[in-house]
Structures are given as structure tokens and as C-alpha cells.
Amino acid sequence: MALTAPIGIALNPHPTAANTVDDLLDRARFVQRAGIDRVWFAQRFDFDSLSVAAAVGAAVPGLHIGTSVVPINPRHPLVVASQAQTAHAASHRRFTLGLGLGARALEEPAFGVPTDRPIRRLREYLTVLRSVLTTGTVDFTGETLTAAPPLPAAVAGGDGPDIVVAAMGPQALAVSGELADGIVPFLAGPRALAGDIVPRVEKAARAAGRPRPRVIAGVPVVVTADPGRARAEAAERMSFYDAIPSYRSVLEREGVATAAELAVIGTEAEVEAQLRRYVDAGATELLITQTDLGGDEDERATWRFLGALGGITG
Length: 314
Hints:
Blueprint: E1 4-10, H1 20-33, E2 38-41, H2 49-59, E3 64-67, E4 70-71, H3 77-90, E5 95-100, H4 104-111, H5 118-135, E6 140-141, E7 146-147, E8 162-165, H6 170-179, E9 182-183, H7 190-207, E10 214-223, H8 227-237, H9 245-254, E11 264-266, H10 268-280, E12 285-289, H11 296-309, E13 311-313
Parallel strand pairs: 1-2, 1-12, 2-3, 3-5, 4-5, 5-8, 8-9, 9-10, 10-11, 10-12
Antiparallel strand pairs: 1-13, 6-7
Helix pairs in contact: 1-2, 2-3, 3-5, 5-6, 6-7, 7-9
Keywords: Oxidoreductase
Pfam family, one: Bac_luciferase
GO molecular function, one term: oxidoreductase activity
């Protein structure tokens, strides 16, 4: 039987916004009116994505809210658990916590903390989160962290949000399949998804006796009549990913030389056809990113088209 993969939008504030939170609220309301029922917020060095998720979840009823993604360094899982439960309660149980291992080149200079042993830290981080989010407490001492709150850590109405991980490497996929509810791979094209990423995470989930994981594929998309402009912008803005080892590895598995090659840019029909390839490759949801590559007018047109589309049937 055919299944439909829901579509969500990654929202960032407009560069000219006078107030970041007000602008993100306006954007969330716009995409909801366009027919999109889920939005995602990335954690950067400016606004706090978990706080924004809670604000949007409370102010825009009916939207599914997620973070894509919150790096686990240098945030302690007890702090993230309290923020995640708050966002889940504020959105009336429509929140998904997206986590990432982070990028050493950015985090070590910025925070002055080591980022070694990422897989061990991910395993322990997920273990702590799973306990707090399902039982309201935890007593854990591991190799990379300790979590033993002296008081209850539960938030009424906020228990049990899904946890997804920006996992693409073999070890991260194994841990995520075992301990998380899904993955949110970005710049993993259809070939990498079908040939490697989806089979690995599903195998790990089966071995752990867990349900089939969510596979939320992050895809840069622009519907435009001027693809040259959007592709030039993609080449400039997405070159950052070409030098990060985890992204370099998944690009090689896809058989492309640069991240910008995975941007889906073109007419409505061309975009829909390319998105269907992701669903056919095993994506259960689509997270549409970088819709601003073609400018404000193309971004709004992209949102309207995706809202009218509703989802991709595979």
C-alpha cells in the first residue's frame, strides 16, 4: 500500500528581522496557512532553538515542532530534557527533539570543551534522555557524563517526545536505531539512503526490538523560474559542508562532489519528481531546508507549492 511522507519546513529568521522570535512566529503562521503542518528549527550560535520551539508550539496551535538539530556538546542531557519536555507540553505533545553530534571544527574553538569519543557520548546521552523523558528521573554514571538529579525531572504534559538523531555514519546509525526513535540525515541523497543509511538504522532498531524508525530526510529545495541564480547561491552557501568529514563521507556514498549538487532546484514538476526519489529510497518524512536560496519570492512560492502538495506518496 502506498504511504505518504509528510513534509516539514526548516525555518530561519529573515536577515532583516527586527525581532527574531516575532519573525519566526510570523513565518510559522505563514507556512501553516500554506498547508504545512510541521516546522523545524536549527540550533545555531544565536537564538535558542528549543526556546523558539516552545514559543511557536504554544502560539501556533496544531503545528508539529522539531529541532534539527541541537548538538549534544556542550549541553548536559538533563538541561536538554527539561527544555524538550517544556516544548512538548507547550505544543500539546507535538514536539520532536532532534539531536546532532556537532562539528568539532566549530565547537572546540567556540566552547573550549573536548568533543572526543562522540559515539560513546551519544550512547550515554540517549540513555539519560530516554530515562528522563519516559520515567521522569535517571540515575546514571557513565564514561562521559553523570546524571543523577536529586529532585524529580518530569514536566507535566511533556513526557515522551520522540528523539531523532542526525546520524549518517555506521556507528551513529547503530546507536540511533537502538536508542532513538529515528534519524534526520541531511545531504544524504537517495542512493546513500537506500543503499546504506536506511538498512543500517532499520537493522539496529529490529535488533533492539524497537519500532521502525522515522527517517526524516533533510533536502534543500527551491521552486523557481531562475534555477541558475539559486544554484549559484547554493554553491556559495553550502560549500561549508564539503570540508566536514561526516558530510564528505555521505557525499561520496551518494556519488557527488559537492553538497550543492544535492539541492533540489527547478520547476514544481521537477521538484516533486526529485522528492519522490527520497521517499522511494526509504524516507518516511521530508524536512525541506534552505528554501531561501532563490530569494524571498521563490521561498514563499516554494512553501505554497509544498503546502498544496501535502506530502509525497511513494
